[in-house]
Design a protein that fits this description.
The chain has 289 residues and is α/β, with parallel strands linked by helices. The chain has helices spanning 4-15, 18-24, 29-43, 59-85, 99-104, 106-116, 129-138, 199-208, 221-229, 272-286, and strands spanning 48-51, 54-57, 91-97, 120-126, 143-146, 155-169, 180-181, 189-193, 213-218, 235-238, 249-255, 259-266.
Length: 289
């Protein structure tokens, strides 16, 4: 089966550009447009709409994209199994992750994995918890770092608990405290991530019956750190994310302690390479990284 047209559609949606997707696959702009037209003719309906802002899947396109991704994942898995039988390792692993893991874990993990499996390539997708869950569900990625949102049928392994810390400006009156109650947040301007990105903190507030005085909301973790540093407000963030930034802000443990659970999930039918990657992640963390 020639799946190049399928790969073109998927990459066009991921890159928001049919032209860039075509370039990745060695197609000219006219060649990519022709391949799209041929596939749409075969299926009998339009897959993409194009505008100045890029490309978007049509309603029918959204219906068939999960199946197209399943076909491509099966092709990738077949290639990896065949290569393994022949004693050759090659293929592509698609990985979904969120900021703190992408910055502080992935570089070391990928370096370790490439040492063991030099023929494997990576395609990385970075978003928030809900993004990674959606990517695992629709086949965009076959392995994802997750917190508590694990899609059904995914194989999940816990990796590490990560403390949630109250972050304050360095010159804040409470910056030298050893611990602070979550209720303290009610008296301060609070900066938070978007709802889909900050479910750990929101659950903690709900359980304690606390309503923070939210002044600013963003999807950018490091924008929050910068705003806290400038004295615009306070926030709560995972300890892993704060590595390398504690010279700019004060990070105080909460009392009682709060944490998030970081784990790794494999989509159903994950390839041998993806399973090897998950094993490498566990071994890398087990060594105290």
């Amino acid at each position: 089966m020639d799946t190049k047209k399928y790969r073109l559609i998927v990459r066009a949606v991921e890159l928001n550009s049919l032209t860039l997707a075509g370039q990745e696959l060695g197609l000219t702009q006219s060649g990519a447009s022709r391949a799209l037209a041929e596939l749409e003719k075969e299926l009998g309906f339009a897959l993409l709409t194009r505008s100045r802002g890029g490309v978007r899947p049509t309603a029918n396109g959204n219906l068939v994209l999960p199946t197209i991704r399943t076909i491509l994942a099966a092709e990738e898995k077949l290639e990896q199994i065949s290569s393994g039988i022949l004693g050759i390792e090659k293929g592509v692993i698609s990985v979904g992750t969120f900021t703190s893991v992408a910055v502080h874990w992935l570089p070391g993990i990928i370096k370790e994995f490439e040492r063991l499996h030099p023929g494997i390539e990576f395609r990385l997708f970075s978003g928030d918890y809900s993004d990674v869950s959606a990517w695992l569900s629709d086949g965009t990625v076959e392995v994802g770092f997750v917190s508590d949102i694990v899609p059904p049928k995914c194989a999940y392994s816990p990796l590490r608990d990560d403390r949630l810390m109250l972050i304050l400006p360095k010159d804040h009156p409470y910056a030298q405290y050893r611990r602070l109650s979550l209720s303290y947040v009610e008296n301060e301007d609070f900066i938070t991530l978007n709802e889909n990105s900050d479910q750990d903190t929101r659950r903690a507030f709900a359980a304690a019956g606390i309503r923070p005085n939210v002044k600013f909301t963003t999807k950018d973790d490091y924008a929050i750190i910068s705003m806290v540093e400038k004295g615009i407000g306070i926030s709560i963030m995972p300890e892993l994310l704060l590595r390398g930034h504690l010279d700019k802000i004060a990070a105080i443990p909460l009392d009682p302690p709060l944490k998030r659970n970081v784990g790794i999930a494999l989509a159903p039918g994950a390839s041998p390479a993806a399973k090897s990657f998950a094993d490498t992640v566990k071994n890398w963390l087990r060594r105290g990284n």
